[in-house]
Amino acid sequence: MRVGIIGVGCSKFGRRDDVTIQELSYEAVKEALDDAQLTQDDIELSIVGCVGTRSYELMPAVPINEYCGFTGKGPMRVEAACATGSAAVYTAYTSIVSGVADVAIAIGVEKMTEVDTPTSLAIGGRGGNYLWEFHQYGTTFPGYYAMHASAHMAEFGTTEKQLAMVAVKAHRNAAKNPKAHFQKEITIEDALGSRYITYPLKLYDCSPISDGSAAAVMASEEKIRELGTDDVVWIESVGYGSDTSNMTNRESFVGLKASVIAAETTYKKAGIDRPVEQLDMATVHDCFTIAEIMAYEDLGFCRKGEGGKFVESGESDLGGKLPVNTFGGLKAKGHPLAATGVAMVYEVVKQLRGEAGNLQIDLKNYRALTHNVGGTGHFAFVMIFGR
Amino acid sequence: MFIESRELVMKHKIPVAKTSKYWQGLEEGKVYKTVCRNCGRAHYPPRAECLCGGEVKWVEIDEEGVVEAFTVVYAIPRGFEWSKPYTIAIARFGDIRVMGWAENVKVGDKVAIKTGKDESGVWKVYFEVV
Lengths: 387, 130
Hints:
The structure holds 2 protein chains of 2 kinds.
Chain A: E1 3-10, H1 21-36, E2 45-49, H2 61-68, E3 76-78, H3 84-97, E4 103-110, H4 117-124, H5 134-137, H6 141-156, H7 160-174, H8 188-192, E5 196-199, E6 201-202, E7 212-220, H9 221-227, E8 233-242, H10 257-270, H11 275-278, E9 281-283, H12 289-298, H13 307-313, H14 329-333, H15 337-352, E10 367-374, E11 379-386
Parallel strand pairs in A: 2-3, 2-4, 9-10
Antiparallel strand pairs in A: 1-7, 1-8, 4-7, 5-6, 8-11, 10-11
Helix pairs in contact in A: 1-2, 3-15, 7-12, 7-13, 12-13
Chain B: H1 20-27, E1 32-36, E2 42-43, E3 56-60, E4 65-73, E5 86-93, E6 96-102, E7 110-117, E8 123-129
Antiparallel strand pairs in B: 1-2, 1-3, 4-5, 4-7, 5-6, 7-8
């Protein structure tokens, strides 16, 4: 059975001191319902993705569900660290495929700015194995990726300048996205001159601490026919991978095995063996610039070790062979953890429908990819969408 | 306009009975892994049960290691306010890898494994460049 996306919504990302987590969720939900031309009455199941802990509601699913008007329909709360949004989409997808529901909504929301930065770092630093990592060594989320960067640089000669190029591209696209956290371009010099957050990653190598929400209304093919919806983006395939909580038990630090597994699974189902030629665009998980470089390699956009050269080539820019993170990526659009995966779906749906305004890509294959990583490759989802 | 939430302090009691040999070892300057007597698999962090069902023995890690990845943390998380910027490294010691604190390391450096107590009273692994 095919599952289609019939409505998407996304809030303004950034520091959202003006709303509670429930109110923020409703911004995306309302836009998604309006986009689908449906009301709360039409939704059979709500999936609420929220990592939480940084926001004052520690069990946020029910308050969010109530405020959005879905009481009695779900909520099913999911959590997969920074891949929580994709876990919500995946859960809605499997619920529809299994016949549990014909119409479901996947909601991803995060309020990250209700605590201070050291607290946020201490929560993110628990995104591995608390007792064996954070407790003793004070690992942080940027620190985990920085360790990967150190290994990638040592093995392949990847440079801090190549990392900076990822940030420059992200900011260039985000500058044209009114919903992005940062709407300003930066130069290579700005990025290279910024202070170290955790060596070798600098301020501009890191995604910001953001608030935001996104939502996607999904339905079975039969239901879509019944509703008479004509502008549908189909989920062609979903892939999921995971890896150890302890960094010491990983196979290597120059890539994320979970991404490779998720990509292999989804490519096989969708018949993709030359992603750069067969896809029109991709959203990849660029929580840190090194993450985008590893993603190019792990997803087969280039060979292992050549991610730095891939960004240098300009092929991932708007107008390149495979534009990547056209709305500004996590790096500049913002990374409200659970919102991110659903916001990736929002981006590919807008692009595939030709509604991306001055960020619109050329459509040839009418196929796009989302790649969403939880933690440092603890989870990964890769999905292919088509229209 | 904001309302401040009520304060919630969380401090968990972590049960380490099954790995007590490891935690006591740190205080004696020793770092242990476990090795399965049945399948030979080595475990670090050590675990008292092998996935094959075999019994494990505790083996001290005392050989030289090689740094595979590291970072210097400048943006310090809550819980480590007392520390100056610190370096976390992951080094390979034969069939396992170990995380530890280090100074002035780079990928490929050879290191010796030590233990010590940090300023907050937590015992852990330190690496010294050989």
